[in-house]
Amino acid sequence: MQRRAAAIYVALFLVIGAGSYSLIATAQAPAISFEEPDNTYQQGDTFQVEGQTYTVSDITAEVESGGGGGHGGGGGGELVRSGQVSWVNDSARYTETWDNNTTVTVDGEEYRVLVEQTSGNPTAFDLQTTINRTAILMDDPDADNETVTRDGEQYVVVQNENGEATLVPADEYFPEPTSEQYSEGETLQYNGNQSTVDAVENESVTLAWNAPRTNTAGLSNEGNVSLGGETYLAFFPNNDSVVLTQNFESYRTQTDNIDEFHVYENGLWGVTILCASVIILLIGLAYLPSRY
């Protein structure tokens, strides 16, 4: 190929390639944005949905390792923004199950749960006080700390007024346990709550009560979150605030524009790379030795 002709073509493709690359370098990629100041919140802000008060309890921005760059970009961390919304349900339902013949603590006292075994469905159970024999013996300065067994029966060794040891039957020495019966639907005070006997079965008892409960929902950038039966899009415009919007149409339009921009950008990169390849090829052909 004549070098003069090659120079002309090289100049042509150089102009085309430089033009496409300049468009890439100067073009500004569109970004998601929402001009909704009333729906923009910082950490600690509150808002209401259907009468329920919500609090933006957390906003974080962390750089995660990994992630690659685009054309001409280097490998680096990716900035990930997230958050959390919390709210209090003032009358959440709680339940707790007590197994039959186990010990539970009610208002600081230990009781044994006793369900009378029946062939049908029981409807009541007893809370029986537990007798801590070791503690009673330790509190009595006149009694030995352990019981003794004589002829198959247990006794407590007690020093009388004369200092003589006498054997008192354990059943006489220790107090009789007391019990209180509760039926399904009745209430008792448990852990500071007025609890209802929700169900009684042969092997267990279920209590139920209402008390406040704090619920949380996570927020991810450009992710959906359901609050009070309403669906919102969470968008973090910066590291300190979050927008909760229902303008999904605007979001779809903006994401379509971004996708279209990247399609054009990739096309321009293709033109730039193709022109560079053709220029290298033309230069190589121009300097090939002539056969004559």
UniProtKB/TrEMBL annotation:
Q: Where are the transmembrane segments?
A: 267-288
**InterPro entries with a match to the protein in the record:** TonB_box_CS
Please verify whether the record's keywords include Transmembrane helix.
yes
Q: Which UniProt keywords are listed?
A: Membrane, Transmembrane, Transmembrane helix
Q: What is this protein called?
A: Uncharacterized protein
The scientific name of the source species is Halogranum gelatinilyticum
